[in-house]
Amino acid sequence: MARDVRADIETMRAADTDRQKVADQLKTALDEGRLTLHEYDERVSSAYASKTYQELLMLLTDLPRPGLSASEVRARHEAEQRRRARRLPTAMLVLWTIWAALAVVNLVVYALVEVSVETDIYPWPVWLAVPGAALAAVTVGVQVIRSQQRR
């Protein structure tokens, strides 16, 4: 549905103010040295001749947002790559979610039994530490292997 909304917006007709905003962004790109004067003239002409938002957006696709330097763009890109590298694979997230759900259920049941029975009972939720430790070891191993593959 979000794709349909975007497609609808892109095919809508642009207003004069929209064309002016794109021309201002192109002027900023020219001032920052991202466009040559010839490229700027071509794109501004195309901007004022554009009829839809899609035609306007195509003039800006290869330009970063105004005011960003190349080092800022590179830093953001590297930060995104680091974030992506730290992210666990989906299978590991599923396993951790299952383990956490089981741990919570066991702890709640244990707490309810402990409160309702007057004698001491065996603390069986302690055994959840074994699969938790195994899962932690596998997670560390997966992350180490992934970091070695990136190098």
From TrEMBL:
* InterPro entries assigned to the protein according to its UniProt record, in alphabetical order: DUF1707_SHOCT-like (IPR012551)
Look up keyword Membrane and say if it applies.
Answer: yes
The DUF1707 domain covers 12-64
Keyword terms of this UniProt record: Membrane, Transmembrane, Transmembrane helix
Pfam families per the record? DUF1707
Protein name per Swiss-Prot or TrEMBL: DUF1707 domain-containing protein
| Parts of the chain that traverse the membrane | 91-112, 124-145
